[in-house]
Write a structure and sequence with these properties.
Layout lengths: L14 E5 L2 E5 L8 E2 L35 E4 L3 H11 L4 H8 L3 H8 L7 H11 L4 E4 L6 H6 L3 H4 L6
C-alpha cells in the first residue's frame, strides 16, 4: 500500500488521518499533517446561501490544464529581439507594424522590450505580418516515467506548508 500524500510504500502500520475534511491513509511520517480519523471537529449547522451565477457565453475562462507528457507551444526565448530584427529587416517603424496588425504602437514597443507577453491573437498577427515563428513545440519533461506508472498521489499535487 502507498501513502496518499508522499507516495512512499507503507511498511508496518498505516494511519487514517483527516486532512481538510478528507480521510487519507498515510505513512508514519505524513500522519503529523492531519488529525486521527476518529477525532472529528464539530461542524457548523449554518447553511450558506447559494447564489447562482449565469454561465458565461464563451465558456470557462480557466486555461486548460497541462497533462503529463503533453506537447505544447511555448513562446521562444528573446521573442522581443526576434520581432525587432524581423521588423527592422522589413524597414518598418513601430507605427507601421502596429497599423499592419491593427494594434497600438505602444503595445508593439512593450512586446519588443518583453515588458508584456503577447496574447495568442496578437502573437499570430505579428507572426503573419513579419513571416516569423514566435513559438516552439515543447514536451513536458518534468514528469518522470517511473512516477507515472505508480500513480499520482496527493503529494505530487499539493505543497505542504510547514509551521
Amino acid at each position: 500500500m502507498q501513502c496518499e500524500i508522499c507516495g512512499a510504500e507503507i511498511r508496518g502500520d498505516s494511519f487514517k488521518v483527516n486532512i481538510d475534511g478528507s480521510e487519507l491513509t498515510v505513512c508514519g511520517r505524513c500522519s503529523q499533517y492531519g488529525t486521527a480519523a476518529g477525532k472529528r471537529s464539530p461542524v457548523s449547522k449554518k447553511i450558506a446561501p447559494v447564489s447562482r451565477r449565469p454561465a458565461s457565453a464563451t465558456g470557462s475562462s480557466r486555461p486548460p490544464r497541462k497533462a503529463p507528457g503533453m506537447i505544447v507551444d511555448e513562446l521562444i526565448d528573446e521573442y522581443g529581439q526576434a520581432i525587432k530584427e524581423a521588423r527592422e529587416r522589413k524597414k518598418w517603424s513601430h507605427d507601421q507594424l502596429a497599423s499592419k496588425i491593427k494594434e497600438k504602437a505602444t503595445l508593439v514597443k512593450k512586446i519588443e522590450r518583453e515588458e508584456i507577453v503577447p496574447e495568442d491573437d496578437v502573437r499570430q498577427k505579428i507572426e503573419k505580418a513579419l513571416d516569423l515563428k514566435l513559438t516552439e513545440r515543447t514536451g513536458d519533461n518534468d514528469w518522470s516515467g517511473e512516477r507515472l506508472n505508480r500513480g499520482t498521489t496527493l503529494g505530487d499535487i499539493v505543497t505542504i506548508k510547514r509551521k
